[in-house]
Structure formats: structure tokens, C-alpha cells
Amino acid sequence: MIQRRMILNYLTLLVIIFILSLEKIKLSWEIRTLYNNNEILEIEFENLKDLNLKLVTQFHVENSPANIEKIAKESMGMKKKRPKEITNEK
């Protein structure tokens, strides 16, 4: 009777250890997957930051007064007016 009880206890412990081992393997796999996903997201974030910087720079270049004046002269045929001379005659 005592022998059976000990065998049953050992078997229960072995099953618990086996289940915990499987859980450990599962958790380590999930951690590795999350770590790899994090690295991929960091790389994508850096790429998006670079793209954002390029787009902001392009926006400022295209909307600069010099560029607007150039487009107005080239495509619309506009010319810059010369200032009028003002004389002070009495």
C-alpha cells in the first residue's frame, strides 16, 4: 500500500515536471519570437524616421519662397516687378 502510494506520488511529480518543462519551452519560444519582432519593429521605426526626415525636408524645399518664385517665373510666365522710383520734387 505504501509502495503504491509512493509510486503514485512519483508519477504525479513526473507529470507535473513534464508539464512545467513544456511550459518553459513554450515561454522561451514566445520570448524569442517577441524579441525578434521587437528588433524588426525597431528597424522599421528607424526607416520611417529617415523617410519622415526626407519628406519634411522635401516639403520645406518645395514650399520655399525661392522655389515658388522659380515655378511662377517658369511655368506661369510671371515676372518680378521693379520698384518704382520715388522722387521728392517740390
Overall outline: rod-shaped
User: How far from one another are the termini?
Assistant: 133 Å
Largest sheet: none
Q: What is the string of SSEs from the N terminus onward?
A: HH
Going by helix content, strand content and strand pairing, the class is: mainly alpha
Tally the helices: 2
Number of domains: 1
Helix content: over 70%
Q: Could you list the spans in which at least 5 consecutive residues all have pLDDT below 50?
A: none
Give a count of the beta strands, DSSP E runs of length 2 or more: 0
DSSP strand content: under 5%
Mean pLDDT over the full residue set: 91
Tell me the Rg in angstroms.
Answer: 38 Å
Walk me through what this model shows.
With 90 residues, the protein is mainly alpha-helical. It has one domain (2-71). 80% of the residues lie in helices and 0% in strands. The radius of gyration is 38 Å and the shape is rod-shaped.
